[in-house]
Amino acid sequence: MVIESIARKDYKTKNLVKRLNYGEIAVIKHKDIDEIAAKSLVEKRPKAVINAEESISGKYPNRGPSILLEAGIMMIDMENENTFDLIEENKKIRIIHNKIFVEDKYIGKGKILTKEMIKIKTEAANNNLEIVLDDFIENTLEYAKKEKNLILGNLKIPDIDINMKNRHVLVVVRGKDYKKDLLAIRTYIQEVKPILIGVDGGGDALLEFGYIPDIVVGDMDSVSDDCLKMCKEIIVHAYRDGRAPGLYRIENHGLDYKLFPSPGTSEDIAMLLAYEKGADVIVAVGTHTNMIDFLEKGRRGMASTFLVRLKIGSKLIDAKGVNKLYKERIKPIHLFSVVISSLIPIIIISLYSPLSKHIIRLLQVRLKLLYELKGILW
């Protein structure tokens, strides 16, 4: 088996897919490929994916490798992660069986993943899940004690120009099934017109569907420049000490921003912002709500998410998975009702128009003549 194409390389898969083209070879350094990353790669249809890390380590049952194999994309994990540094962007890569060549120069070999290998690793991960869960719970409780200011109200919430008082607020994260869920609630968005908050790449998710985000919240590592320039307000998520790694990017573009120092995740502070500013309802799309979601994000606990959801309570409506709960279908009875409803006014108008009356009268006369003629012949 020989595969040959141009290399596209990046430490972060979410950055790589922005410039990955059909039929190229994706070179990544992504341990335990998550479902979202895998689906973003599948959309680009690369010939192969070369990973400098273990695509599935057995730590937890990540779905990414299975998704890629099911899409017919070959995966090869490098035996030596240093091989990653020997591959250059735009260079021609040739994969011969499990050996990797760059511009005809041999640089190393890897392990081609198979369904059987993934099955074994997944079973091992499932057996290990109880231990991982114990660690996850302990870590969550430990950090919850440190992050209790999220519910005690001791955080400094930035002032914003958009009035959320008694409004619906839609918080969008580019998480699992966000596209399907946005499609499922598009009627809600059109009719209610909620304030739209994109969490980092969630801003671009809104743009995909033709919506301009009112606010972009996050550390600014995965949102596009176009989105930042189009949104009305930018809120940069900072550490508790005020440091904000993504701030230099905003300042380089000369954009206005507000700083929000807070522990936890950017999606948590987006919900907290909406709550503190008086939102009537907060609808969340694509957010991370379970252990697997957080493990895929590389987080060891969900303290901030637990605390924020505890605080905002009944105001939160989680739209994650709503596409599975409700799918719009046109049933035969609906189609029949529409046809009958449209015919009724046509019939009524026809019966009362002079021309229609004249035509009906002529038909009556003709039928009468035919009947009388038939009586004479018999």
Describe the structure.
The chain has 378 residues and is of the alpha/beta class. It has three domains: 2-120, Aconitase, domain 4, CATH 3.20.19; 150-325; 333-377. Helix content is 45%, strand content 19%. It is built from 17 helices and 14 strands. It has a seven-stranded mixed β-barrel with strand order 1-2-3-4-7-6-5. Helix 1 links the parallel strand 1 (2-10) and strand 2. It starts with a strand and ends with a helix. The relative contact order is 0.10. The mean pLDDT is 83. Residues 320-370 form the SteA-like C-terminal domain. It holds the Pfam family SteA-like_C. The chain crosses the membrane at residues 333-352. Keywords: ATP-binding, Kinase, Membrane, Nucleotide-binding, Transferase, Transmembrane, Transmembrane helix.
Topology:
Layout: E1 2-10, H1 13-16, E2 25-28, H2 35-44, E3 48-51, H3 64-70, E4 74-78, H4 83-86, E5 92-96, E6 99-102, E7 105-112, H5 115-146, H6 149-152, E8 168-173, H7 178-184, H8 186-192, E9 195-199, H9 202-208, E10 215-218, H10 225-230, E11 233-238, H11 247-252, E12 258-261, H12 266-276, E13 281-285, H13 291-296, H14 303-312, E14 316-318, H15 322-325, H16 332-352, H17 354-377
Parallel strand pairs: 1-2, 2-3, 3-4, 8-9, 8-13, 9-10, 10-11, 11-12, 13-14
Antiparallel strand pairs: 1-5, 4-7, 5-6, 6-7
Task: Characterize this entry briefly.
The protein folds into 3 domains: 2-120, Aconitase, domain 4, CATH 3.20.19.10; 150-325; 333-377.
* Uncertain ranges: none
Total number of helical segments?
17
Q: Work out the strand percent.
A: 15-25%
Work out the count of structural domains: 3
Class from helix and strand fractions: alpha/beta
Given the C-alpha coordinates, what overall shape results? globular
Q: Describe the strand arrangement of the main beta sheet, using strand numbers.
A: 1-2-3-4-7-6-5
Radius of gyration: 29 Å
The total of beta strands comes to 14
Report the span from N to C terminus: 89 Å
Please outline the major beta sheet. Answer: 7 strands, mixed, barrel
Mean pLDDT level: 83
Give helix % range.
40-55%
InterPro entries: Put_SteA-like (IPR047795), SteA-like_C (IPR022215), TPK_catalytic_sf (IPR036759)
Pfam family, one: SteA-like_C
GO biological process, one term: thiamine diphosphate biosynthetic process
GO molecular function: ATP binding; kinase activity; thiamine diphosphokinase activity
